[in-house]
Specification:
3 helices, Rossmann fold, 91 residues, three-stranded parallel sheet, alpha/beta
Length: 91
């Protein structure tokens, strides 16, 4: 969360089942931080029976994700943004 806030990425791809912070809680924190509130989130989960689409207009990708479907979702979210060197925020 600190890395995303200090250097907001173009897109966040996150699993909803995380060990320290639940994905829904993470999305709420991202939405409440002015630095990350406008960063689009693609949420991933294998629990499609529990959750079909996260709240807040975020997109959902079922796991295991089909690579072509995932790329299609990423392109749809990023639209026609200028290309550059993408940065990856890891663990």
């Amino acid at each position: 969360m600190q890395k995303a806030s200090s250097c907001p990425p173009d897109l966040i791809l996150m699993d909803l089942a995380m060990p320290v912070l639940d994905g829904r809680e993470a999305m709420q924190l991202l939405a409440s931080d002015p630095a990350t509130a406008r960063v689009p989130v693609l949420a991933m989960s294998a629990q499609t029976t529990i959750l079909t689409t996260p709240d807040g207009g975020q997109r959902f990708v079922p796991k295991p994700a089909d690579p072509e479907q995932l790329l299609e979702q990423i392109r749809a979210v990023l639209g026609h943004r200028p290309s550059g060197n993408p940065s990856v925020i890891g663990e």
